[in-house]
Amino acid sequence: MPSPDLRTIAKLISQDPGLSGALLKIVNSPFYGLTNRIASIQQAVNLLGCNTVINLINAQSIKGEMTDETIVTLNRFWDTAQDVAMTCLTLAKRIGHQQADEAYALGLFHNCGIPLMLKRFPDYMTVLEEAYASANAERRIVDTENRLLNTNHAVVGYFTARSWRLPEHLCEAIANHHNALSIFSDDSGRDAPLKTLLAILKMAEHVCASHLVLGNQADDHEWNSVRALVLDYVGLSEYDFENLKESIRELGAH
């Protein structure tokens, strides 16, 4: 397959104000630590690279499927998806993960099933809050969705990611992102790439307070059940993680 022409990509993006704004917002965020702000779409595309740009286009395509009312309802979802993605990128670099762009993609798309679930089920956000509230070591967030709706956002996200032709291991990570306790309780060497991606995601979700933003819960029940296993897997002490969390929040993740 021929290499994509970044100049052509930049020219096409420049014709879409929403996508142009999203691109510039990301590249000028504190996570990239640039001395001077960038206003050129071409520069932004060159800095972010083809994979990240394509992922952002896919993310914008979800918005295109939504009504104005749904987009407003999901304002908190759009914001936290980008926060989690940037936090995944930062964490991946800090722990020495070689595929930081994959961690970014997982952060951006792990909940891509949520807006599609809301489109199908108008009361979905209420169900999601109940799912977060009742989550514990025995009950996954998706278990409540399965009981009430006969499907869940992780499954919908998996098939959406496959339709975008994302790598299969990324699709598997999306499908299993609320199955972390079971995966990390298996201490064999099986699924090491999946475990690494999920470890980064679980840390990022906690740093960005997804339990509060999406689930309206003060306590992060899911993180509490996997915290020790995740930190042990990536080789971080509680003290190291707390310091890392504070440094990332200072960059703008909430």
What does this structure look like?
The chain is mainly alpha-helical and 254 residues long. The protein folds into 2 domains: 1-48, no CATH class; 58-250, Hypothetical protein af1432, CATH 1.10.3210.10. The protein has 17 helices and no strands. It has helices at 6-14, 17-27, 41-48, 50-64, 68-73, 75-94, 100-109, 113-120, 124-134, 141-149, 153-163, 168-175, 180-185, 192-207, 210-213, 221-234, 238-250. Helix 14 crosses helix 16. The longest helix has 20 residues, at 75-94. It is globular and about 50 Å long. The termini are far apart. The mean pLDDT is 87. It comes from Pseudomonas tohonis. Residues 1-180 form the HDOD domain. Pfam families: HDOD (PF08668).
Outline the low-pLDDT stretches: none
User: What's the name of the CATH homologous superfamily of the largest domain?
Assistant: Hypothetical protein af1432
Total beta strand runs: 0
CATH topology of the largest domain: Hypothetical protein af1432
CATH class membership of the largest domain: Mainly Alpha
- The residue-averaged pLDDT reads 87
Instruction: Determine the N-to-C terminus distance.
Output: 40 Å
| Discrete helix count | 17
Measured as a percent range, the helix fraction is over 70%
Choose one word for the global shape. globular
| Largest sheet composition | none
Regarding quaternary structure, how should these chains be classified? single chain
- Sheet-strand content, in percent, reads under 5%
Gyration radius, rounded = 18 Å
How many domains, as an integer? Answer: 2
* Name given to the CATH architecture of the largest domain: Orthogonal Bundle
